[in-house]
């Protein structure tokens, strides 16, 4: 028997593709638009959400029988805000340079509706281990899309990847720029992130017709 | 049958308990990490000041500070004087770098006399005057350490921000933008003019150092305008001090 049962493994794999939080559930779009102009920022955000969602789901699951239903949303919000503040404080103390790089992204995690969605839809009704797997699965599904969007936006918008000039120098006109290529400044603006997400959704649904909703 | 957790009393007790637990946890964590965080900020200030006078570990294209373990030694080696300018009075203060520019700006708005810190450094026989400045970007604060010579020609600059957009306004802290300021004169025809972040100067390599302009970052109009306004309003306050250098 493997480490995970088939049902448990699906908690990790489903959000990765057929139940992706961004492309299928259309959640977490705000951060996908806001922070994906750079690949590095996308990776950092993906890793931060992975931590907050994994730990947050476990905490909510452990508290699921004692949280009053009337204030459950507030309780969930407090858990996610607490985790985000803890991450922020610890990074400022032990990895100050990294915390500077993250800037406002850490705080932005609080606004990520995927996290609140998984607390509400899964962690409140399942045990800690399954909630942990669900949190990790959804965070990975979210992170993959973020990284894809960040990859194309930085490459086509700035001609760089992780800050390295991969297409040549646009000012000195070397590499691809010598052939007349110009960076597409529109890629750096938020509307283009929405278009890139739309293209990913289009490609995903064209490859799997089961994902297309019937009228 | 209603559950035990549905009662108003339980809800109230739960909410109170949660606030106490979370509040205590965060207060404990914040107070125990504060000395380390403050020390990191203090080191960063010294690194910023040194960067603005060209003491750094830059490679070909990235902006890299002097490493943490070296910064104290380098700071005392290169920074020869730390001044506090308050009105017409200039005094020396070896901890001037710890002056909070934001607090001083608030004091100024309240009608109090503001303290302007200025750091004097010597490197390769050249004197640098480094001023810390602070302004507003698109989302939050932007700030800089600007190294000048006695004629207010910029010799180095370090820009930073609190929450500008990644890939756009946040690029003010990238080397290609900061290096553009080197050689720019803050004065024009003997009067203070500042430096504008311009979208229309048609000088992407920033060869023209007499136009009081540097090339803007695409898609970061408001951040660029904020940087221009910060330079203009904040560095102007140092003009009287630079005039005294001429008369001495």
TrEMBL record, chain A:
It is found in: Cell membrane; Endomembrane system. GO terms for molecular function: oxidoreductase activity, acting on NAD(P)H, quinone or similar compound as acceptor. It is a multi-pass membrane protein. It comes from the Bacteria. The keyword Cytoplasm does not apply. InterPro entries: NqrD (IPR011292), NqrDE/RnfAE (IPR003667). Composed of six subunits; NqrA, NqrB, NqrC, NqrD, NqrE and NqrF. This is Na(+)-translocating NADH-quinone reductase subunit D. It comes from Tenacibaculum todarodis.
From TrEMBL, chain B:
The keyword Phosphoprotein applies. It is found in: Cell membrane. InterPro entries: FMN-bd (IPR007329), NqrC (IPR010204). NQR complex catalyzes the reduction of ubiquinone-1 to ubiquinol by two successive reactions, coupled with the transport of Na(+) ions from the cytoplasm to the periplasm. NqrA to NqrE are probably involved in the second step, the conversion of ubisemiquinone to ubiquinol. It is an enzyme of class 7 (translocase). It catalyses: a ubiquinone + n Na(+)(in) + NADH + H(+) = a ubiquinol + n Na(+)(out) + NAD(+). It is a single-pass membrane protein. It comes from Tenacibaculum todarodis. Its main location: membrane. One of its GO terms (biological process) is sodium ion transport. HAMAP family: NqrC. One of its GO terms (molecular function) is oxidoreductase activity, acting on NAD(P)H, quinone or similar compound as acceptor. The keyword Iron does not apply. The modification FMN phosphoryl threonine is found at residue 221. It comes from the Bacteria. Keywords: Cell inner membrane, Cell membrane, Flavoprotein, FMN, Ion transport, Membrane, NAD, Phosphoprotein, Sodium, Sodium transport, Translocase, Transmembrane, Transmembrane helix, Transport, Ubiquinone. The chain crosses the membrane at residues 12-33. This is Na(+)-translocating NADH-quinone reductase subunit C. Its cofactor is FMN. Composed of six subunits; NqrA, NqrB, NqrC, NqrD, NqrE and NqrF. Its EC number is 7.2.1.1.
């Amino acid at each position: 028997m493997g480490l995970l049962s088939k049902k448990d493994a699906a908690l990790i794999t489903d959000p990765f593709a057929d139940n992706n939080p961004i492309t299928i559930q259309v959640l977490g779009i705000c951060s996908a638009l806001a922070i994906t102009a750079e690949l590095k920022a996308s990776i950092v955000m993906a890793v931060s959400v992975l931590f907050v969602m994994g730990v947050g789901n476990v905490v909510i699951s452990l508290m699921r029988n004692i949280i009053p239903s009337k204030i459950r949303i507030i309780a969930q919000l407090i858990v996610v805000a607490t985790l985000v503040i803890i991450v922020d404080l610890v990074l400022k103390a032990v990895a100050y340079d990294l915390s500077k790089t993250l800037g406002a992204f850490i705080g932005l995690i609080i606004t990520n509706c995927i996290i609140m969605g998984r607390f509400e839809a899964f962690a409140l009704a399942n045990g800690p281990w399954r909630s942990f797997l669900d949190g990790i699965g959804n965070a990975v599904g979210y992170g993959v899309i973020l990284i894809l969007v960040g990859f194309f936006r930085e490459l086509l918008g700035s001609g760089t990847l992780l800050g390295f000039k991969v297409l040549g120098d646009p000012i000195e006109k070397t590499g691809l720029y010598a052939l007349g290529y110009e960076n597409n400044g529109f890629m750096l603006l938020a509307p283009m992130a929405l278009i890139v997400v739309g293209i990913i959704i289009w490609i995903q649904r064209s490859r799997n017709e089961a994902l297309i909703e019937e009228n | 049958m209603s559950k035990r957790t549905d009662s108003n009393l339980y809800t109230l007790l739960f909410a109170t308990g949660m606030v106490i637990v979370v509040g205590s946890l965060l207060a404990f964590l914040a107070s125990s990490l504060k000395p380390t965080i403050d020390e990191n900020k203090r080191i960063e200030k010294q690194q910023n000041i040194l960067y603005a006078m060209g003491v750094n570990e830059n490679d070909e294209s990235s902006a890299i500070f002097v490493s943490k373990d070296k910064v104290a030694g380098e700071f005392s080696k290169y920074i020869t004087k730390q001044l506090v300018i308050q009105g017409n009075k200039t005094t020396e203060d070896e901890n001037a770098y710890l002056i909070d520019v934001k607090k001083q700006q608030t004091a100024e708005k309240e009608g109090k006399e503001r303290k302007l810190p200025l750091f004097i450094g010597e490197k390769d026989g050249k004197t640098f005057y480094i001023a810390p400045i602070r302004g507003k970007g698109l989302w939050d604060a932007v700030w800089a350490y600007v190294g000048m010579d006695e004629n207010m020609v910029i010799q180095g600059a370090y820009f930073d921000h609190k929450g500008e957009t990644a890939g756009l306004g946040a690029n003010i802290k990238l080397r290609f933008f900061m290096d553009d300021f080197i050689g720019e004169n803050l004065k024009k025809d003997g009067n203070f003019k500042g430096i504008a972040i311009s979208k229309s100067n048609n000088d992407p390599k920033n060869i023209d150092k007499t136009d009081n302009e540097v090339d803007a970052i695409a898609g970061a109009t408001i951040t660029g305008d904020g940087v221009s306004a910060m330079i203009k309003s904040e560095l102007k306050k140092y003009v009287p001090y630079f005039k005294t250098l001429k008369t001495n």
